[in-house]
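User: What would this chain look like folded?
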Amino acid sequence: MRRVLYIFVFLVIGNFAAGQQLPLYDQYLYNKFLINPAVAGSDGYTSVNLTAREQWVGYYGAPRTFSFSLQSRMLKRSYILRQISSRRKVYRPKTDGRVGLGGYVFSDKNGLIHRTGFQVSYSYHLWLRKATQLSMGLAFTGYHFKIDEKEIDFEDNDNEPWLNNDLRRGIFVPDASCGVYLLNARYNVGISADQLFEATAKIGDFAYKNYRLERHYYVFGDYTFELNPKMDLQPSVLFMMSEQIKPQADIGVTYIFNQAFWAGITYRTSKAIIANLGVKYQNLFIGYAFDFTMSEIQSVTYGTHEITCALKFGDNARRYRGLDRY
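Assistant: Here's the prediction, encoded as structure tokens.
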């Protein structure tokens, strides 16, 4: 019975690490598509992004997340130039290509729980006055949800019901997300909701009822201050919450030099400080983030590490340059 209780605690409590059931990212500024489907194709580029995150390195059973995403825009060929500052130019199509498409695959392991799945997204973009764009997106998600039996040791594995139910074999869970995204050369704001269906997964017998995947909400935004022709300062904020977990926020600031190097620091209200660095070389972007957790677990870990690599393809003269740098 104690072993069953141990599993239950890992499933219901352990999976709420960092205050949510979904994977937690540090460098969302460089790939907002992972938390908002409306971002797909918003900057006009074709973007390929790989993110690897190791949380609480050195702590057994700590979360580990990998994601690979691709997004693009169905553009048309006729473009006009709009000057917005001495060094920023925005290229807008005379006839808008308004549809964005995207998708990603992911693997997220947290304690005994392993989720492997995919998401496909559709977005629609509208130009408002001047150079401001409003995007709306909808995504379908499906993933394989299972308990990793290799992490459990019972006295009689052959007759243990926990190792012969659907969670041992794995179950397919369909879900959906939606979002809205407002984008400008100076600022952007987004709001999204994930796990809209609030799918349930049966845990053991009826005594444990259902393990419910709660709906999650994200609100984010940033604003760019031009300090001089080569230096920008970008404050940002991200609010995250679910229907059971109290809100938490990331509040940060990033220094950007010559559109090719950036460094930032963020405070997460769940008691963590995040430092990040990044460089750009031609169409390649590389970012690294380190979490220092201000809680007891920090004494037995080597922190949290996250690496992001991205490629952006497309002729600069045909794209929405200046709207979204990363």
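DSSP finds two helices and 19 strands in the chain. If you want, I can go into more detail on any region.
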